[in-house]
Structures are given as C-alpha cells and as structure tokens.
Amino acid sequence: MNEQREDRRLRRTRNLLTGALIDLMVEKRYDSITVQQIIDRAGVGRSTFYAHYRDKDDLLLSGFEAAVDGFDAHGDDDGTVDSQIIPALEFFKHVQENRHLFNALTRGRVIDLVFEKGQDYWSKRFENYLKGLLPQGREPEVPLPVLANYAAGTFITLLKWWLNNDMLYSPQRMDEMFRQLVTPSIKAALGN
Amino acid sequence: MNEQREDRRLRRTRNLLTGALIDLMVEKRYDSITVQQIIDRAGVGRSTFYAHYRDKDDLLLSGFEAAVDGFDAHGDDDGTVDSQIIPALEFFKHVQENRHLFNALTRGRVIDLVFEKGQDYWSKRFENYLKGLLPQGREPEVPLPVLANYAAGTFITLLKWWLNNDMLYSPQRMDEMFRQLVTPSIKAALGN
DNA sequence: ATGATGTTGAACATGGTGTTCGCTACTGAA
DNA sequence: TTCAGTAGCGAACACCATGTTCAACATCAT
C-alpha cells in the first residue's frame, strides 16, 4: 500500500536525474561528467542525489536496468540455426525503441561495459545449444567456445555499427544480415 | 647529435613509469589507479612524472605506441580472401610477443579504446578491397560497409577471446580460425 | 493538524590532480 | 677531473570533485 504509492516525488526525482545524465552523455564523455552537473541540470539537491544513488555509476546502471526491464527473449523458433538463442530481431527492435538511451550510452563510451555482459551471456547459451547440435563424436573445425563467442561477438559488432550509423537499416534487415553472416560460418565449422 | 645522446636517465625513468603502470593494471582497473600509486611503485618523484607526461592517459598511450612501434603489416599474399588486408597472423604473433602489455590493457579495460582505432582502420581497408572484388553491377547480399565492419569485428572478437583465455591456441591456429569463420560468410554475401 | 517521508543547500572532511621551487645527484664533454 | 647543464626529488600549494551530515522546509495521507 505505502510501497505501492511510491510517492510520485521519488519517481519524479529519479526521472529528472536519469534524464539529466542522458542529456549530458549526449554532449560529453561519461567520465568528464560530474555529479554537480547532473544535479544542476536536474534541478535537484546534492543530498537528494546521494539519498537515491550511491554514485554516478549507480545512477547509470539503474537507468539502464529500467530501460531493459520489460524486455525478455521470446524465442520464436523458426528453425534456423540461432533464432532461439540470440533473439536478435527482438533486441534490434528494443534498441530502436530506446534509441535515446542507447545513443547516449554509445557516445558516453559506456556501451562496452553494458554489452560485455550480454556477450558473455549469449555466448554461453549458444555454446550449450551448439553442443546439442553437433553429431556425436564429431569435432568441429573451430572449437565450440570460440564459435559461440564468435556468434555473440558478431551480434554485438552489428549492434554497435548500427548505433554508430543512425540505425540506417530496419531491425528486420539487421536481423537478416546477422543470420546471413553467421549461418554460413557455423555450418562450415560444424561440417555440413 | 644532442638528441642522439638523450641521457640514459630519461629512458630509465620512462621505463620505470611504464612498467609500474602495467604492473598496476594487472592488479586493478585502470580508472582506479592514481598517479601517486604509479610513482610510488616506480620510485619516481611526483614532479618528474609531470615533467615527462601530461597525465595518466598520456603515459598509457606513450607506452602503447612504443610497443606497437616496429610492427608493420607484411601483407603476405597467399590468395585467400583477406590475408593482405587484415594481417591476422602477424598481429596474433605480435600480441603474443607483447603479451604482458596486452594482458594489462585487457584487465585495465582500456583495450576497447585501443582496438577501436584498429577496427576502423581495417574496416576501411577491407571495404576498399571488397569493392574491387565484387563483379560489376552486382549487389552483395549484405552491404559492403557492414560486411567490412563484420570482418574487422570478428578479428577483434577473436583477439579479445584469445587474450581472455590465456592464448590457449597458437597464433597460426587463431589465424586459421579467423579465416574459417570469415571466409564462408564473405563468399556467401558476395554471391559465389 | 500531525506525523512520516522527501527535499534542500550549506558546510565539511577527504583525497586526487597538476604546479612550483629550491635543492641534490648525475651525466657527458672537454 | 672538472664543470656546466640537465634530470630528479619532494614538500608545499591551490584547485576541484566526492560523498556525508544536519537543520530547516515541503508535501502528502489520514
């Protein structure tokens, strides 16, 4: 009940701060942004900031988590090599919807940190998937961990390129490219 | 003549500082390293540090340039799709020889900055190369800029994986994998 | 109205940065 | 060997960002 309400002021303050940080990240490198600048831009008191967040990084990650919330892999199994494991289309769409945040992350040079986790996660899932796909007793031409890391890395690379080029193509096209690039290599490496 | 001499003390001090920074980067994140820690470890006076370098970043980049000096693409043309453009084997070898520095860069989370430049450079060269390779009037399935960025990105991804896994395989094997992964996709995208 | 909770901003302690300067120690050349 | 020139030293300093504390004020539900 009381937690339910959550006092609109709380949410308002957090939104102001997150918005100010994103604003600033569009303008300058993340490391060069000071807490003072954030609270000035947000019109929020200094102590209020520290009542909500431990430091600048905390604010950043909270904002990011909020934006990623509500995103969960759907796993539409259409039979191709990788669709369930790396839900590329879903993710491209999601990034497009939150382009403001992701652009800021890119400019602020924090995107690497964020995507690193994603790459690890997808790489592991993909490796398990490939393990099941490989015929018994057969050795792939490229070791599975490398192969999995390659696939996840390609996805991240495409995502970065897309963000750095004003999302020139549609999410559908990007997803298509991802598969066009990764599928031949995977098939060749697995030996069929 | 006078520049030739260069007082051994100068070089010694610089080596001490670079070494201390690398030492520290092996232990902790780059941003958490202070100038004080560097000069303590190096046994060098504070003012001496600032006489040589403008700041921490300056020291880092100088050290990196020094290590990359003496490396230049050989371009051994053996007829496969990419050997001249991205001299992967040469680079894997070079990284292995300077593994100390590259490991430190990786742990210090600065590697992204350094490789970003490399990826841009290779991507552009590769795009030009592919442009010449494509039959007149034919459209590739994946746009050339994306394709080039993909190839350069794959190389960087492999390099990072290699560094993060104790250089498990030989430079020759890594080079081989790079080609096994990239070649099928390139061929498929170019339509042959 | 009242208590609970959120906000404010000044003041403060702390710690890193980069500069200055008088002194010492070493170097290479004659 | 001598000596002028150069490099290194480190204490002291001004500056600035961080994160904490606190007393006063604002807002809301009941």
From TrEMBL, chains A, B:
Kindly list the residue ranges recorded as spanning the membrane.
none
The leader peptide range reads: none
Keywords in alphabetical order, please. Answer: DNA-binding
Q: Does the keyword Zinc apply?
A: no
The terms under GO molecular function for this entry are: DNA binding
Tree of life domain: Bacteria
Chain residues forming the annotated DNA-binding region: 34-53
Sorted alphabetically, which SUPFAM superfamilies does this protein's record hold?
Homeodomain-like (SSF46689)
Residue span(s) of domain HTH tetR-type: 11-71
**Cross-referenced PANTHER family, in alphabetical order?**
ACREF/ENVCD OPERON REPRESSOR-RELATED (PTHR43479), TETR-FAMILY TRANSCRIPTIONAL REGULATOR (PTHR43479:SF7)
Report the protein name in the record.
HTH tetR-type domain-containing protein
Origin species, per record, is Candidatus Aquicultor primus
